[in-house]
Automatic annotation (TrEMBL):
Residues 10-66 form the Polymerase nucleotidyl transferase domain. It comes from Rhodoblastus sphagnicola. It comes from the Bacteria. This is Polymerase nucleotidyl transferase domain-containing protein. PANTHER family: NUCLEOTIDYLTRANSFERASE, PROTEIN ADENYLYLTRANSFERASE MNTA-RELATED. One of its GO terms (molecular function) is nucleotidyltransferase activity. Pfam families: NTP_transf_2.
Length: 105
């Protein structure tokens, strides 16, 4: 898996690090931005893998707040969802896509 860094993604990752610290297992960009076929107005699809995901709804809300701050400042839309750390190895279609096309942040 490769890596990617842009000002928007760097800001998003820094905000995640501030909120979650060592709880982050990995953060993966996927979709058109990871594949390199995004349009300028394409959103950023991001999977946030947390070591201790006790409440999906709570963490989805916290992550969405970070995305909203970035949207308000830059106009960039970040669609990010939390996953438990072990989910990365699951055999679902989404996880196969993440392993195949995803880029670590």
């Amino acid at each position: 898996m490769g890596t990617i860094e842009t000002p928007i993604l760097s800001r998003f990752r820094a905000a995640l690090d501030e909120v979650y610290g060592e709880q982050i297992e990995r953060v993966v960009l996927f979709g058109s931005r990871a594949r390199g076929d995004a349009r300028p107005d394409s959103d950023y699809d991001v999977a946030v893998f947390l070591k201790d995901l006790t409440s999906f709804d709570r963490e989805a809300g916290r992550i969405a707040e970070i995305g909203i701050d970035i949207l308000n400042d830059t106009g960039a839309v970040i669609n990010a969802m939390p996953f438990s750390a072990g989910a990365y190895e699951h055999r679902t279609g989404l996880m196969r896509e993440l392993r195949r096309e995803g880029l670590d942040l």
